[in-house]
Amino acid sequence: MASKTNPFAFLQQVRSETSKVTWPSRRETMISTAMVLFMVLFAALFFFAADQLIGWLISLVLSIGN
Asked: CA-CA distances (angstroms) from residue 3 to 6, 11, 17, 26?
């Protein structure tokens, strides 16, 4: 059975661990955010184009029989 940690001691441990974290700078955060937004836009445009192309091909194939 695991022993319970005192809530105050737990908070001290959390604070100690968060002080060890290397936080990104404002510039790094902005660059990462811009990269993510660019990739989301690129993926959205790619899948939109792929969807339009596949839809066009399917309508072309289905209209051949008529």
From this structure: 10, 16, 20, 40
Q: What is the pTM of this model?
A: 0.63
Per-residue pLDDT reduced to its tens digit, 10-61: 999 999 999 999 999 999 999 999 999 999 999 999 999 999 999 999 999 9
Residues near 40 by beta carbon (within 8 Å), at least 6 away in sequence: none
Q: Give the number of other CB atoms < 10 A from CB of residue 49.
A: 10
Whether the CB-CB separation of 42 and 35 falls below 8 Å is answered with no
